[in-house]
Amino acid sequence: MKRTAVLTTSALGAGLLLALAAPLSASAHVGVSATSTAAGSSSVLTFSVGHGCEGSPTTTLAITIPEAITSVTPTVNPNWTITKVMETLDTPIAEEEGDPITERVAQVIYTATSPLAADQRDTFELSLPLVGEEGDTLEFPTLQSCLVGENDWSGEEVPAVTLTAAVEEGDHHGAAATAEAEHTEAGAPTDDVLARVLGIGGLVLGAVGLVLGITARRRSA
User: Per-residue pLDDT tens for 58-74?
Assistant: First the structure.
């Protein structure tokens, strides 16, 4: 009887841990998804912040823009003030119409009007052109600052978008392929699928343990 109770408790505990750990692993870094990954297209990138700095609330998020990109339009987020950090270009870029481009947006900084609690998440959208060719990777190093400490999302954990083939006007098949490719960026949707699978597995394991415990008690009675 005691052994059955121990096994039941262990199974339920393992199931609960799996169910809780999966969603936490899926939001363990700043991820990015894109409405389009086609080279040369305009895209809206959504950066997601899923936690603070070891329990400390987030105060600012500084997103560094790749050098190839000159124009960025942030989406208004009422919980944050937005600052564009400009950088003068070494060589101005000639435009077919209008004056040459002499500076670019080097960084976009979001400052919280009230610190984002460590156990809450928020998203940040940037509209920009995907400058480059198929196979190029655009990296967006991101510095997350908190009331205490910071997280530097760069190197292997940097939010990034890998460009796919350019889509010709009217190429609906290419557009569909681009839409599918965006869901693999930064591991976010892939992590979501893994989280769901692990979560369901944990719940099933817990349920099996519960059934075994009830059956054992009935037999003993």
Answer: 999 999 999 999 999 99
User: What's the CATH number where 205 sits?
Assistant: 2.60.40.2230
Dig out the tokens for 97 from the structure.
């119409």
Mean local confidence (pLDDT), 40-52: 96
pLDDT value at residue 199 = 55
The total of structural domains in the chain comes to 1
d(CA 146, CA 128): 27
What predicted TM-score, i.e. pTM, was given to this entire model?
0.68
* Containing structural domain, residue 59: 2-220
How far apart are alpha carbons 111 and 108 in whole angstroms?
Answer: 10
Nearest-angstrom CA–CA distance, 114 and 121: 13
Give residues with Cβ within 8 angstroms of 66, minimum separation 6. Answer: 131, 138, 139, 140
Integer Cα distance of 70 and 129 in angstroms: 9
Token pair recorded at residue 116: 């984002």
pLDDT at 180 over 70: no
